[in-house]
Amino acid sequence: MRAVEVVLLLVVLATTVAALADRLGAPAPSLLVIVGVLVGLVPGIPALVVPPEVISTVVLPPLVFAGALDLSARDLRSVAAPVATLAVGLVAASALAIAVVTHALLPQVGLAAGLVLGAASCASRRGCWRWCRRRAFSTTPPRW
């Protein structure tokens, strides 16, 4: 396959996964990371080497910005204290845990790349935010 065809195929795949995530109510960034790992394991797909600096300066800021656009200020003000505490502590701990586990399972993946993976996994979306808020502040048991 030529590079143009591969890029077009990946764009179609990413769009399909994002649409599927909306239908499932799951966070799209998490599904995109999972599908991206699976696509990377397919033989015959050309290797794409992107430095972690490019990911952290080009890819992550738009993801964080898009997540911020989906969040209303009124909702954020109503739970400002727990959000401030959890936003820094749990996101950093989750990203670090993902980095350590990734590095332990795949030693060829460095800690910096693992942190990028962890930061991408911790990206938030409106649906995920509402789901977590309902679970955290609900007094009724969840309906499974």
Strand-residue proportion: under 5%
- Residue-averaged pLDDT, rounded? 77
What is the rounded Rg? 17 Å
The number of helical elements comes to 7
Number of strands: 0
Largest sheet: none
What sequence of helices (H) and strands (E) makes up the elements? HHHHHHH
Low-confidence stretches at least 5 residues in length (pLDDT < 50)? none
Structural class, judged by helices and strands? mainly alpha
Helix percent band:
over 70%
Overall tally of domains: 2
**Overall form:** globular
Query: What is the rounded distance between the termini?
Result: 44 Å
Please give a quick description of this structure.
By secondary structure, the chain is mainly α. The protein has helices at 3-24, 28-40, 52-69, 73-78, 80-105, 111-121, 126-137.
Descriptors for this entry?
single chain; 144 residues; mainly alpha; 2 domains; 7 helices; globular
Molecular structure report:
The longest helix has 26 residues, at 80-105. α3 (52-69) runs parallel beside α6 (111-121) and α5 crosses α6. The chain has helices spanning 3-24, 28-40, 52-69, 73-78, 80-105, 111-121, 126-137. The protein is an all-alpha fold and 144 residues long. The radius of gyration is 17 Å and the shape is globular. The mean pLDDT is 77. It has 7 helices and no strands. It folds into 2 domains: 1-48; 50-144, no CATH class.
Describe the secondary-structure layout.
Layout: H1 3-24, H2 28-40, H3 52-69, H4 73-78, H5 80-105, H6 111-121, H7 126-137
Helix pairs in contact: 1-2, 3-6, 5-6
